[in-house]
Amino acid sequence: MIISGMVKSSLVDYPGQVAAVLFVPGCNFNCFFCHNRFLLEGAHNIINLKEIKDFLIKRTGLLDGIVITGGEPTLQTGLISYLREIKELDYKIKLDTNGSSPFVIAQLLQTGLCDYFAVDYKAPAARYPEICGNSASAGPVLKTIGLLLEHQAGFEVRTTVIPQLNEEDLLCMAKELPVVPRYVLNRYRVPERYLPEDQNRILETAYTQEHVNALKMVIKGRQPNVLI
Ligand code: SF4
């Protein structure tokens, strides 16, 4: 298990909880608008796991939970044993994932170690390779979401409304998904780092918050639990 970054306290990464956020390096997708591009390039900065554990022991009672994010946490060998260590400290655990590893999610569901999941659904299935890199596919993501529903796990699905997604795309995505317990549409922000060849699409005009709110209303018929 490799951790490459830590936010010691966050009020916005785990709904209703005060949480520390741990970032793992590496991802099997390559979304052009990734906000953590430095993590895609591998583990340049490795934080000692004992230091993190000592910090978490000291913060018992002050923090409610831990968010494991990235990068893509399900690619980490040793993820389950690491989460077990955290659980022994009595923290709630939220896992952020791109949804590409349903077999890992199935294992996590068996262990009961995660209290909450956030799964990104990034594009209509037909546009996954274009938006998330050539090897990306929506099939495993939909399988992950199906498993979470089947196990009645606490989870949300998130979509960043990048400028390249239009109303038709969002409606298509809302229909491709089963009805999910919480669907979050996030406004697009320009990332600090991006690939030079992506400059044009990165700098396309973002939707305003008002427009994103209007898009939420468009998909509400299909996804009644979209966060308004
Ligand atoms: S799945 Fe997430 S971490 Fe991976 S490239 Fe896409 S935005 Fe970045």
Summarize the structure in words.
The chain is α/β, with parallel strands linked by helices and 228 residues long. It has a single domain (5-219), classed as Alpha-Beta Barrel (TIM Barrel). It has helices at 37-40, 49-58, 79-88, 102-111, 128-132, 138-150, 167-176, 199-202, 209-219, and strands at residues 5-10, 19-23, 65-69, 92-97, 116-120, 155-161, 183-187. The chain has a seven-stranded mixed beta sheet with strand order 1-2-3-4-5-6-7. Helix 4 runs parallel beside helix 6. The radius of gyration is 17 Å and the shape is globular. It binds iron/sulfur cluster. Iron/sulfur cluster (SF4) binds at residues 27, 29-31, 34, 36, 40, 70-72, 98, 132.
What proportion of the residues form beta strands (DSSP E)?
15-25%
Query: Can you write the helix and strand succession as a string?
Result: EEHHEHEHEHHEHEHH
CATH class category name: Alpha Beta
What is the count of distinct domains?
1
The first-to-last residue Cα distance is: 36 Å
Q: CATH H level: which superfamily?
A: Aldolase class I
Q: Main attributes?
A:
single chain, 228 residues, alpha/beta, TIM Barrel, seven-stranded mixed sheet, 7 strands, 34% helix
